[in-house]
Design brief:
The complex is a heterotrimer of chains A (281), B (270) and C (292). Helices cover 38% and strands 22% of the residues of chain A. In chain A, α8 crosses α9. Chain B folds into two domains: 37 residues; 206 residues, MetI-like (MetI-like fold). Chain B is built from eleven helices and two strands; from the N terminus they run ββααααααααααα. In chain B, β1 and β2 form a beta hairpin. In chain B, α8 runs antiparallel to α9. The chains are: A alpha/beta (281), B mainly alpha (270), C mainly alpha (292).
């Protein structure tokens, strides 16, 4: 699997074309995503920033195949993934790392990491275990493979979940605010981990967050979204060289981009806040 | 906001219509009707075991007679009185005991094991002892009913009181509460959900106990009605008795749920 | 407290090296606290009160009840006045009959109820058709089924087992269904995203994910089984502990009632402890979570 992939040209380009999504629960039409277009190149680290509940996750779920879209099209490597007429289905080529983590609590770390290859039937169990051990070793996650997720720290769990995704050699890695609700110290560790994984694999990453600093530190391209309905407000090219580490956080480029970002986002955050207040009333 | 809600006088009509005509509801009705029809057919064809059950048509026949008979409604009244007395008594005795055991560690350590030991004894096993003890059968039946709900109530409340988040108590202390305040304003409301659960489960147990006790040791009530119909060979009435008990049980649970909503308004938000 | 001590040796076997030490430490801590002594004090006080009321002071009404000393004497007597004690085969036959009935009913209810509940949680269409039926039958207490079940089944044995079965069946199905519903949607999404096929979702997500609730359900269902069994045996049995209680009442052999009640309590407790043990063994991930 891996061997054939590295031989080919990099895969995982996503093309999002004029996507609109309207939720219709109980006849109350809610416009979640409004006419959104973006081109994500293969191997790009793309970050979407926007206030909470703005519709970023809707877009990610459509790529992941959890639900369809109302109009528009999403293409993956030149294949139509979903459109208004075509409801997608989830697949192991687009793996999601969820907001609150979704390691299966009833499986050990090793069983979790080998879940993908085992259920897809691509590997024997022994082979999958071998590969998983090697990979966990490379990622510095040895010695916990027989523990249950509840027995390891939250930062560890998040790294294992990324490892579980990487085991499937996906075309795209979809991360849905994966480091939310983590303390700052743990965050620096998992950020570095994710950057290392990215530098080694050069997978396309589609990363959602509401944290500006995280977005600039990790991403190659940062899309700033508007309050619901989600539209693209601004696109930033982050030209901080890779491999990056914490030193990038004090570079002039970083600070300039952050300033730019804060201005754009602050306006949206205020709008979102007011909209929220209106909803509550 | 891009929300186009069709609300007229606070009622979301589209939602209501969707709910009533939903596929789930239709399937439910289909399955219930199918069940009754299948049952009738099985009886008509004299299928073993199920064939011994009185057919729905004969039950419907008997129902007409029962509904106009005062004896039937007297059974309702008698069972209801027993349930109410036993249940209310269990709450009155059980809630304070449960709270005391939950709050006071020493009391809990001393008294709780007695409950732990009594709990696995099925309530019905108490019937003979209760009949021996109480002067009238009526009292003994109410006592057994009481026991059924009592254990459930106490065990639930103790569990609830023990698991109160210590932060609430600390917050109350730091806001300057007295011990009394802490009991009435923190412990009691924090335990309220468990009290409610205890009531809900307790009500179910109460009905089961009353019905059995009436069958075993009484001359009135819905349980007795059911048992007597069996003894007298009026088989369709058995089904009527069972359904009546089901309806009565459902109504009492619904009542508890309404009460529960009043007692714990903060849980209803979502 | 007791559950913790029960659970820890289990975890020790599964290569968690320091669990034994934790268990020992907890035990020592427990013995140092006032808890075990107060427990004993409470129980002794209860028995003493019972003794004083019934046998020593012979308080009105209470004097009619069998006292602890009389019941205990009867229980350990080699030549019991009413024919039931530790030394009579009859006692064991009653126990054996009841246990067999509960076992049959419980196994049947579990074998039918757990798959049904899992399936209902898995396939919405199946659930739509079956759930209303279940909900309609559920408010009818199991004991209201007594006459009908005698009517339906040939022979008393079958009707008592059927009754006991009903008691545990509903609890098992509903708790299993609840268990499936309690599984966070995100695990299904994760499994789909990792390429799981329906059968994997069933065996790797639904089954393990609902296990905690299933075992809670099984414990409740065991309680209901004993509950219904006693009722069934009282009304229609020829052997069994429920029958023994009722028969001793009719024959005015009151101490036997207490013996049978205590026996029922002990066996009932043992059976739910056994389920807990099996549950802990199957759900190492839960046990270890609790240890932390």
């Amino acid at each position: 699997m891996n061997a054939s992939a590295s031989g080919m040209s990099p895969r995982g380009s996503i093309s999002i074309r004029e996507v609109t999504k309207i939720y219709d629960p109980d006849g109350a039409k809610v416009l979640a995503v409004d006419n959104c277009s973006m081109e994500i190149e293969a191997g790009e680290f793309c970050v979407l920033v926007g206030p909470s509940g703005c519709g970023k996750t809707t877009l990610l779920n459509a790529i992941a195949g959890f639900h369809g879209i109302t109009t528009g099209e999403i293409w993956l490597d030149g294949e139509l993934l979903c459109s208004g007429a075509r409801t997608p289905s989830p697949g192991a080529d687009r793996i999601v790392v969820f907001q609150n983590g979704a390691l299966f609590p009833w499986f050990t770390v090793l069983e979790n990491v080998t879940f993908g290859p085992v259920v897809q039937g691509g590997m024997s169990k022994a082979e999958a275990h071998d590969r998983a051990r090697t990979m966990l070793g490379q990622m510095g996650l040895m010695g916990i493979e027989n523990n249950y997720p509840s027995e390891i720290s939250s930062g560890m769990r998040r790294r294992v979940e990324i490892a579980r995704a990487m085991m499937n050699d996906p075309r795209v890695l979809l991360l849905d605010e994966p480091f939310r609700a983590m303390d700052a110290l743990t965050k620096t560790v998992v950020h570095q981990f994710l950057l290392d994984v990215y530098d080694k694999s050069r997978k396309t990453v589609f990363f959602i967050t509401h944290d500006l600093e995280e977005a600039i530190f990790l991403g190659s391209k940062v899309y700033i979204m508007t309050t619901r309905p989600a539209r693209i407000k601004k696109v930033l090219d982050v030209d901080i060289p890779r491999p990056r580490d914490f030193r990038a956080l004090s570079s002039a480029t970083y600070l300039r981009l952050k300033q730019e970002c804060i201005e754009a986002v602050h306006e949206e955050a205020l709008k979102a806040f007011k909209a929220g207040e209106r909803e509550m009333a | 906001m891009a929300t186009a809600t069709a609300t007229i006088q606070g009622v979301n009509w589209i939602r209501l219509r969707k709910k009533v005509l939903s596929r789930t509801t239709c399937r439910g009705i289909v399955s219930l009707v199918g069940f009754v029809v299948l049952w009738e057919i099985c009886v008509r064809l004299n299928v073993p075991i199920i064939g011994n059950v009185p057919a729905p048509s004969s039950v419907l026949d008997a129902l007409g007679k029962q509904l106009v008979s005062p004896a039937y409604w007297l059974s309702w009244r008698d069972s209801m009185i027993r349930i109410l007395t036993g249940f209310v008594a269990a709450q009155i005795v059980g809630i304070p005991i449960g709270l005391m055991l939950g709050v006071n560690r020493m009391a809990r350590d001393t008294i709780y094991p007695i409950f732990e030991i009594m709990r696995p004894i099925p309530p019905l096993a108490w019937v003979p002892a209760s009949v021996i003890f109480w002067p009238t059968p009526e009292l003994s039946m109410i006592f057994v009913t009481f026991l059924g709900a009592f254990f459930t109530v106490v065990l639930n409340i103790v569990g609830g009181a023990k698991s109160i988040d210590i932060r609430y108590i600390r917050a109350a202390h730091s806001l300057g509460s007295t011990r009394r305040d802490i009991f009435w304003r923190i412990m009691l409301p924090a335990t309220m959900p468990s009290i409610v659960v205890g009531m809900t489960v307790g009500m179910g147990v109460t009905w089961a106990v009353v019905v059995a006790a009436e069958m075993i040791a009484s001359q009135s009530g819905l349980g007795y009605l059911t048992w007597r119909s069996y003894v007298a060979g009026e088989y369709p009435v058995i089904i009527i008795g069972m359904l009546s008990i089901g309806v009565a049980g459902y109504l009492s649970s619904a009542g508890i749920r309404v009460l529960a909503g009043r007692l714990t308004p903060w849980l209803k938000v979502r | 407290m007791t559950t913790n001590v029960d659970a820890l040796p289990q975890a020790a076997e599964a290569k968690a090296p320091n669990s034994w030490t934790i268990a020992l430490f907890n035990l020592r801590l427990w013995l140092k606290s006032s808890t075990p002594y107060l427990n004993l004090l409470g129980l002794a006080g209860f028995v003493l009160l019972w003794y004083l009321l019934t046998e020593y002071f012979k308080v009105p009404y209470f004097e009619k009840l069998p006292g602890p000393v009389a019941s205990f004497r009867e229980w350990v007597s080699e030549d019991p006045a009413y024919g039931i004690s530790l030394y009579t085969p009859d006692y064991y036959q009653h126990i054996g009959t009841s246990v067999m009935r509960v076992l049959k009913a419980f196994v049947l209810a579990t074998l039918l109820g757990v798959p049904l509940g899992l399936f209902m949680g898995w396939k919405k269409i199946f659930r739509d058709y079956t759930f209303p039926l279940l909900e309609t039958l559920r408010p009818i207490p199991m004991l209201a089924w007594v006459p009908l079940s005698i009517l339906m089944w040939p022979g008393r044995e079958a009707s008592i087992v059927f009754l006991t079965f009903l008691g545990s069946f509903f609890a098992t199905v509903l708790n299993t269904l609840l268990g499936v519903e309690s599984i966070d949607e995100v695990y299904f999404r994760a499994a789909h995203s990792l390429g799981a096929k329906p059968r994997h979702v069933f065996f790797k997500i639904i089954l393990p994910g609902s296990l905690p609730f299933v075992f809670t359900g099984l414990q409740i269902s065991m309680g209901f089984a004993w509950f219904s069994l006693v009722a069934g045996e009282m009304l229609a049995g020829e052997y069994g502990l429920g029958y023994l209680i009722w028969n001793s009442f009719i024959l005015v052999q009151y101490p036997v009632i207490i013996i049978a009640m205590v026996t029922l309590g002990v066996i009932g407790w043992l059976s739910s402890a056994l389920i807990r043990l099996v549950g802990d063994r199957l759900m190492q991930w839960k046990v270890r979570e609790a240890c932390r």
